[in-house]
């Protein structure tokens, strides 16, 4: 229990695919009290997926209508389906002083930063491009051509890193989790005007 | 060993006296590779004090001459003596990418922030004013009048907290050390333009 309330902040974890973002997020959620933002999608649920846990599953009409009202912090179309981060839930949690975690791709992260300049963007990097290639090949579900495309996309994504606040090289998972935890813990000690007032009043 | 060099940063630890700043700094120095900035003073060394470790002991002429050249990041006169943080040593360490730790009073910290806007100011708070009073009384070297003055000075110092970047309530020492370490570790993951270029080149 902290003496002073810290501000709720939005942490956006992103980076190329196959860098272990998901595992990192799961480990963080075990260690720290932080809410995971659930995306909304128009695609049909896969076996075992639960509405409200894995995604909010909605039809295209509902998605479009929410989008028209500015109801998404970020949004993407992948083939025939839409994916997005509903704004209301995130804003509600932040206003209650809760930290929120968002795991999305680089395009999405940059959209979120534009919508919420106070959000904290954390870029997860592979140890090297060769290692990324190994990880993608290890999945053994893609052709050489597809792998080449994914590597090239990853390099493009990394070129956006200047827009990010923090980076973590996910080489050793425990170390990466420790770094991520430090970033969040440090923000919990950060001074902002309302907190400064609260502190000054407390010690008067 | 990190893959990318982090930037050397100046961490300024300050806050009212009797909040345990010194102990916190010693613990941090045991845990992290960070240079402690040594102050310069014109007062005579006390028994056991070593020049260059506890202070740089100099005469008034040398101190004044360095001060006239803008050679201090902060400076104070206490009765007949001068105290200050020599700028050159700090700047040299930072330029080599080394982190530097400075433990000084609130007045000094605010001077440092003006001289080096990138420095990171961390305010150490007592658990409460009553607890601060206990700690000061525990030293049993001061009159009631002196204690009152010190408490009032502490309250004045706390009123400057808005100019600081982080705060740590030093209630449980281990927790306070962990918070301080998180702040420094988080900065080691922070992205800045030169680092972004280095990263982009590495993954090209």
Quick recap:
The structure is a homodimer of 204-residue chains. Chain A is α/β, with parallel strands linked by helices and 204 residues long.
The description of the largest β-sheet of chain A is: 5 strands, parallel
Low-confidence stretches of chain A: none
Protein chains sharing the most extensive interface: A-B, 39 and 40 residues
What is the oligomer described by this structure? Answer: homodimer
How far apart are the first and last residues' alpha carbons of chain A, in Å?
Answer: 22 Å
Strand content of chain A: 15-25%
Give the overall shape of chain A, derived from the CA principal axes: globular
Mean pLDDT over all positions of chain A: 94
Helicity of chain A, in percent?
40-55%
Instruction: Give the class of chain A from helix and strand content and strand pairing.
Output: alpha/beta
Helix tally of chain A equals 8
Strand order of the largest sheet of chain A: 2-7-1-8-9
Counted beta strands of chain A: 9
**Rg from Cα of chain A:** 18 Å
Provide the succession of SSEs of chain A: EHEEEHEEHEHEHHEHH
């Amino acid at each position: 229990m902290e003496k002073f309330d810290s501000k709720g902040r939005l942490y956006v974890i992103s980076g190329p695919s196959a860098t272990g973002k998901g595992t990192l997020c799961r480990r963080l959620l075990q260690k720290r009290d932080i809410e995971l933002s659930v995306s909304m999608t128009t695609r049909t649920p896969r076996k075992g997926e639960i509405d409200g846990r894995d995604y909010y599953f909605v039809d295209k009409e509902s998605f479009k209508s929410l989008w028209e009202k500015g109801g998404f912090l970020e949004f993407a179309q992948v083939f025939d389906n839409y994916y997005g981060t509903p704004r209301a839930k995130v804003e509600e949690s932040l206003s209650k002083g809760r930290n929120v975690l968002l795991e999305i791709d680089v395009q999405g992260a940059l959209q979120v930063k534009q919508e919420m300049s106070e959000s904290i963007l954390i870029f997860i990097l592979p140890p090297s491009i060769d290692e990324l290639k190994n990880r993608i090949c290890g999945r053994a579900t893609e052709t050489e051509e597809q792998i080449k495309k994914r590597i090239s996309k990853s390099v493009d994504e990394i070129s956006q890193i200047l827009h990010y606040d923090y980076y973590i090289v996910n080489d050793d998972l425990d170390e990466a989790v420790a770094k991520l935890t430090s970033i969040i813990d440090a923000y919990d000690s950060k001074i902002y005007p309302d907190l400064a007032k609260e502190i000054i009043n407390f010690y008067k």
